[in-house]
Amino acid sequence: MKKVNLLNLKGEKVKDINLNDEVFGITPNKNVLYDAIILARASLRQGTHKTKNRSEVSGGGRKPWRQKGTGRARQGSIRAVQWVGGGNYGTPVPRDYSKKQNRKERRIAIKSALSEKANEKAIIALENLVLKTPKTKEMIEILESLKIADKKVLIVVKEFDENLILASRNLQNIVLISADEINVLDVVGTDYIVATEDALNQIEEVLR
Asked: According to a count of CB atoms within 10 Å of the terminal CB, is the N or C end of the chain lower?
């Protein structure tokens, strides 16, 4: 089993805890992990992009001038793509970007992401994360004591605390989620995972 130090909010070691090998100790499957990242990023795309084609723009029921004899190029409609105010050709239309991945692959993907972080020693366990005040300054002091103030950090807790939400929401390098919201994109997109002991236990209970 992999061991990590359980720290207090001052960055001092309290004890060692074991991480479950079924969750944090598997051999990462990079192909499945890649597919999960693509799926997660695709799900963020709204797909509402739209432009009007020549059947949707206004005007142009008749031919603008006769076919021959004017000295100008022949034209059939002022809604054609070459006219100012005409329709567009080959431009985006609404579509669904979502992809599918079966449940077993999704579980392997999140386990692979967590195991990568464990291998990189990028998982920091805290005995608790209860703030006295809702001030950002207190949150920064905690990150500095953990020596990760300049890193992008994923904070995982079992339950949200109002002070924690208020203290972390103005920090751009912080992503705060609950243990049941753990996902591949947030794990791979941050440098460190800071998780409470309760949150780690909940993650292991769900994924093993």
From this structure: N
